[in-house]
Amino acid sequence: DIQMTQSPSSVSASVGDRVSITCRASQGISSRLAWYQQKPGKAPKLLIYGASSLQSGVPTRFSGGGSGTDFTLTISSLQPEDFATYYCQQAASFPLTFGGGTKVDIK
Amino acid sequence: EVQLLESGGGLVQPGGSLRLSCAASGFTFINYVMSWVRQAPGKGLEWVSTISGSGANTYYADSVKGRFTISRDNSRNTLYLQMNSLSAEDTAVYYCAKGRGTSVSCADYWGQGTLVTVSS
């Protein structure tokens, strides 16, 4: 199975800050990586697929990069509605696996 | 507009069974893989199972293999998850999710989730 490791597990930031979250796969997954945002009590929302493609309707302050084993989600200027938990997921092979999550909260 | 509406969750005793349903609309159901993903209280996301568009291919997490069965009725645009031999470790919100593509893929739309509680 492919293990997905996210870091950090939590980050405190202010509105307007640039925030980056990393995700590492235990083996190469090409660009088969997605990022999701989840707010308390709500379903996850797809932000990025194919490591760097922005899902329709997602603000352009979100961007993704990387390939192989190392990936990054960047929020260029944090907005109040961005405080949430973020998950990466590999979509290269079954079983599909998620990272442990990164909680972004208010400093 | 894509909509996914789960139902069938509730309280069940250990060893019991439950069947979840997910009614889909707003897209051509047969063209997409569908998955179930769960989230235990206060925990992260865990993939449970995926089924191909035709229903011919199914995939399961080791934690549910042999106990859970995923299926779909393409005439009714409905996804199912039959859960047997339930234990406390299966307590979670279960989400139905539409795949972006026709095979291994991420999920671009999710239902609101249905809570399954396994307790005596």
Quickly list its features.
heterodimer; A: 107 residues; mainly beta; globular; B: 120 residues; seven-stranded mixed β-sheet; four-stranded antiparallel β-sheet
Structure description:
The complex is a heterodimer of chains A (107) and B (120). Chain A has no helices and 11 strands. Chain A is mainly beta and 107 residues long. In chain A, strands 2, 4, 5, 6, 9, 10 and 11 form a 7-stranded mixed beta sheet that branches. In chain A, strands 1-3-8-7 form a 4-stranded antiparallel beta sheet, with no helix packed on it. Chain B has 120 residues and is mostly beta strands. Chain B has strands at 3-7, 10-12, 18-25, 34-39, 45-51, 58-60, 68-73, 78-83, 92-99, 107-110, 114-118. The termini of chain B are far apart. The mean pLDDT of chain B is 97.
Termini separation of chain B (Å)? Answer: 40 Å
Helix content of chain B: under 10%
Please report the distance between the alpha carbons of the first and last residues of chain A.
36 Å
If you average the pLDDT of chain B, what whole number results?
97
Average pLDDT taken over every residue of chain A: 97
Structural class of chain A: mainly beta
Order of helices and strands of chain B: EEEEEEEEEEE
- List the helices and strands of chain A in order: EEEEEEEEEEE
Number of strands of chain B: 11
**Shape descriptor of chain B:** globular
Helical residues, percent of chain A: under 10%
According to DSSP, the number of beta strands of chain A is 11
Multimerization status: heterodimer
Main β-sheet of chain A, in a few words?
7 strands, mixed
Strand percentage of chain A lies at: over 45%
Segments of chain A where pLDDT lies below 50 for 5+ residues? none
The chain pair with the largest interface is:
A-B, 24 and 23 residues
Shape of chain A: globular
* Biggest sheet features of chain B: 7 strands, mixed
| Uncertain regions spanning at least 5 consecutive residues of chain B | none
Task: Write down the Rg of chain A.
Answer: 13 Å
